[in-house]
Specification:
5-stranded antiparallel beta sheet; single chain; two-stranded antiparallel sheet; alpha+beta
Length: 302
């Protein structure tokens, strides 16, 4: 889904309230929200509404069924995600109706989990409040005038502004990675420009940095997206190479929130030790022979 503005309480709105959508009625009945002000965004994955809770203006993200995500995308993003029990895992693997429902619930809860995890780590994301019946209630990100903050894609920057925001967002990427999370789909379409700087949104596709085999590729793509966007306004950014530098530090266990990045990276190509490779092969062969012997001995004694 394209970005939706979500973050701080803003000035009271004077426009008439809209009729409450059916999916938001439970939140009204539970007293979690008072009224629905207006629809803010509608995308492939969710619809977002501006809502009121007392004197606060918040947003509610109402998830749709996942009918527009490709199977390949789902496999890449959900790799190594845990489910509650083996029955759910089997159903998801078989693609049954129950399995599809469980998979969608896991996809939605992934964003909630990521938001709480990243907010606790100090990453600039909207603060989540409640997640109930497929609806995520969170703060509304506002601009300097108290209105819903725009996406980066809708804003033009001076070279200095581009450099500042690019550096700020690289720090957020590092902070996320130190918390063990890769956004997986970071771009100008899911970053909002709040009054006090960029805020990262849309995290249902967030992946575990250590447990997902695609995490490196996704991290590099996220950083490249930032470079390409801000490079339109500050062309010298296009020659930077922060992604590989960040990942190399992460792999070596040297990445911290205070790591000084240069934007330059030279891959270290170590010569292959053929002897070590052959020993690994020989060891594997020996283990296989031993395994077969154990199987034969077990069969003879039966």
């Amino acid at each position: 889904m394209a970005g939706y503005p979500c973050g701080v309480a803003i000035r009271p709105l004077t426009i008439p309230f809209m009729k409450t959508p059916p999916r938001l009625l439970p939140l009204v009945e539970e007293g979690l929200i008072d009224t629905v002000v207006r629809q803010l965004m509608s995308g492939k994955e969710a619809m977002v509404f501006v809502v009121r809770q007392g004197d606060q203006t918040l947003c509610a993200k109402v998830y749709k069924e996942a009918t527009n995500r490709s199977f390949r995308q789902a496999v890449d993003y959900t790799e190594n995600r845990k489910v509650k029990n083996s029955r759910q895992a089997r159903a998801m693997a078989k693609g049954t109706k129950f399995g599809r429902e469980a998979q969608e619930a896991a996809w939605q809860s992934a964003e909630v989990d990521a938001l709480y995890r990243l907010a606790a780590a100090g990453v600039r994301v909207p603060t989540p409040y409640q997640f109930i019946d497929g609806v995520l209630l969170m703060e509304l990100v506002a601009d300097a005038d108290g209105d819903a903050a725009p996406r980066l894609n809708d804003v033009a920057f001076t070279p200095d502004e581009a450099r500042t925001h690019h550096a700020s967002l690289l720090q957020e990427v590092v902070r996320m990675l130190c918390a063990g999370v890769v956004h997986g789909d970071l771009s100008e379409f899911n970053i909002l420009l709040a009054a006090d700087g960029p805020v990262i949104i849309d995290l249902p596709q967030a992946v575990d940095a250590a447990g997902n085999n695609h995490a490196q590729r996704m991290l590099l793509r996220d950083v490249t997206n930032l470079k390409d966007f801000f490079g339109q306004f500050a062309p010298e950014l296009l020659s930077t190479d922060f992604g590989p530098e960040i990942w190399a530090l992460f792999e070596r266990g040297l990445l911290t929130q205070d790591s000084v990045l240069t934007g330059h990276f030279k891959p270290q190509h170590k010569p292959v030790n053929l002897g070590d490779v052959m020993r690994e092969i020989d060891d594997a062969k020996d283990e296989e022979v031993a395994r077969r012997l154990r199987m034969q001995e077990g069969g003879s004694s039966a």
